[in-house]
Design a protein that fits this description.
Length: about 60
């Protein structure tokens, strides 16, 4: 499934348990949104450092 990076926002954790970064496992502070088509968006959680890497690598290819 192709996914297109759309944006990064502050993490909205509604539960008491902290979420882990998808890449490194540290506590997540950012939500990265990806468009996968048909009006469907996927949210992946990242720490600040990994979110910067995702944002910079995807913005340069767009």
């Amino acid at each position: 499934m192709d996914r297109i990076f759309t944006s990064i926002r502050a993490c909205h954790n509604l539960s008491d348990s902290p979420r882990a970064c998808r890449d490194c496992g540290r506590p997540a502070t950012k939500d990265a949104l990806f468009d996968v088509g048909n009006g469907i968006a996927v949210v992946e959680r990242y720490c600040d450092q990994c979110a910067k890497a995702i944002e910079s690598s995807n913005r340069s290819s767009v």
